[in-house]
């Protein structure tokens, strides 16, 4: 089956429609998922109205209807669960007996383990843990996916196809999801921080703030597109910018003298450690 066919026929329940599930849904709708195939839920009624307007899908709130999550999943093939890690166990527990037996539950929650999630689902319910990132919203995201033991090959392929219209999908063992959080899930924020820092300091160097922000954004985008082409490594692309005795060499020497690689490594270790810690903190 082509990914267009898959998108056309899959019935999707989206539990929680915040930053992450919103990005995933935007990517899937842009890739061809019909809006009529989607039922989403939020906690608050105001949020449901705003999100229905924003995404053009049916959104029901738990505030207005305490059965909203159960209603949303009743006819779903795929249930995309994007509530906060502290809320996911309770959310799944209250709807587990409303899930069709062959519906695939896809968790995007950081940390919370398949063992914990499986313990509040009915025995044998297919479950896929994923770690996506928000650039899915512009069709350039990353998703690490770890299919669980009750997921058939066809179901794993279906989930991969649903995501692959809006980003790179990499299958990993569940034990590697903390590494995926550090490398992709959290990583857009590192690059946004870099863009923020560049724009702030460009202003100190005399550029108007708005121009500095546009230049930083276009530079991050351009560098990303060059990296994505894949014909040269990041190291080669960096070296191409570094004219001997020039300006870039001075900047890179300054980063290296200040220990940028160690700074990045410590930040990634902190993200991965927090992911593992959340797995122990949020249990059934
Ligand atoms: N943000 C990111 O970049 C990434 C986030 N994640 C994961 O995504 C998940 C969501 O994070 P994020 O999108 O940032 O969070 P948000 O706070 O933006 O969104 C959470 C959504 O869940 C809704 N919600 C809360 N409780 C319930 C419930 N019981 N039933 C249905 N909906 C509910 C909220 O409703 P309301 O709209 O009314 O507030 C909101 O729409 C987390 O588990 C996080 O670990 C994973 C990778 C990246
Ligand atoms: O910060 C978080 O916990 C989530 C997971 C990865 C990105 N955002």
Automatic annotation (TrEMBL):
Pyrroline-5-carboxylate reductase dimerisation domain boundaries: 174-278
Annotated GO MF terms: pyrroline-5-carboxylate reductase activity
HAMAP family, A to Z: P5C_reductase
Keywords: Amino-acid biosynthesis, Cytoplasm, NADP, Oxidoreductase, Proline biosynthesis
E.C. designation(s): 1.5.1.2
Residue positions binding NADP(+): 15-20
PANTHER family documented for this protein: PYRROLINE-5-CARBOXYLATE REDUCTASE, PYRROLINE-5-CARBOXYLATE REDUCTASE 3
Official protein name in the record: Pyrroline-5-carboxylate reductase
Substrates-to-products reaction catalysed: L-proline + NADP(+) = (S)-1-pyrroline-5-carboxylate + NADPH + 2 H(+); L-proline + NAD(+) = (S)-1-pyrroline-5-carboxylate + NADH + 2 H(+)
Binding site for NADPH: 69
Pathways per UniProt: Amino-acid biosynthesis; L-proline biosynthesis; L-proline from L-glutamate 5-semialdehyde: step 1/1
Domain called Pyrroline-5-carboxylate reductase catalytic N-terminal: residue spans: 11-111
Cellular-component GO terms for this entry: cytoplasm
NCBIfam families associated with the record: proC
Organism name: Micrococcus cohnii
Compartment(s) of residence: Cytoplasm
Pfam families linked to this entry: F420_oxidored, P5CR_dimer
């Amino acid at each position: 089956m082509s990914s267009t066919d898959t998108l056309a026929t899959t019935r999707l329940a989206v539990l929680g429609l915040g930053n992450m599930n919103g990005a995933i849904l935007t990517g899937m709708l842009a890739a061809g998922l019909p809006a009529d195939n989607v039922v989403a839920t939020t906690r608050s009624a105001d949020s449901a109205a705003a999100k229905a307007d924003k995404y053009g899908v049916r959104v029901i709130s738990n505030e207005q209807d305490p059965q909203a999550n159960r209603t949303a999943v009743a006819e779903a093939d795929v249930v995309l669960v994007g509530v906060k890690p502290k809320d996911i166990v309770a959310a799944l527990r209250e709807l587990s007996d409303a899930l069709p037996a062959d519906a695939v539950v896809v968790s995007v929650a950081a940390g919370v383990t398949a063992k914990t999630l499986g313990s509040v689902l009915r025995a044998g319910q297919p479950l896929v843990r994923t770690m996506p990132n928000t650039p899915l919203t512009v069709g350039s995201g990353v998703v690490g996916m770890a299919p669980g033991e009750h997921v058939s090959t066809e179901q794993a392929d279906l989930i991969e196809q649903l995501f692959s219209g809006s980003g790179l999908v990499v299958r990993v063992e569940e034990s590697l999801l903390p590494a995926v959080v550090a490398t992709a899930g959290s990583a857009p924020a590192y690059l946004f921080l870099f863009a923020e820092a560049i724009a702030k300091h460009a202003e100190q160097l005399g550029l108007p703030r708005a121009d500095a922000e546009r230049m930083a954004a276009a530079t991050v985008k351009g560098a990303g597109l060059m990296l994505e082409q894949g014909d040269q490594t990041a190291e080669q692309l960096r070296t191409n910018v570094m004219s001997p005795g020039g300006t870039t060499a001075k900047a890179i020497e300054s980063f290296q003298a200040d220990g940028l690689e160690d700074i990045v490594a410590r930040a990634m270790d902190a993200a991965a450690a927090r992911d593992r810690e959340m797995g122990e903190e949020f249990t059934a």
